[in-house]
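Here is one chain, start to finish.
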Amino acid sequence: MPPDEKGSTLMVPRPVKLREALASFEDLYSPRIVERVNDYDVRIAHVAGEHVWHVHDHTDEFFLVLEGTFDVSLRESDGSVRTVSLHEGEIFVVPKGTEHKPASSGGSILMFEPSGTSTTGDRHLGEIPSHVEATTRHEMFGENG
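Its structure:
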């Protein structure tokens, strides 16, 4: 691939088959970057069980349920908790600064968030479960697609 004006390798646009991409790994809560849009990552992940309570201080977090169900518990300003239950084809955006905890009985999701966003937020409560990967980058197709 030819380098661009900054010396980075240019990516050749190609369609991404999400079902095939999801079939290529089994790890839970270990998002893979399947594409980039400007300074944002498009990530996919298998989900099952509980994630960890966490906060993204500087960015919203977008979820699209591809398969199964996905719950997002939100801690309200008064300390109460409400849970949003999502099904296949539904989207939800967690506003920045909102403490939240994803959970699922099983499925897969697509996330859209700024590159470098940590999967466990800027702050999180408690230990990170062994089935949750704390990462800011997990390439699906290698460094440059």
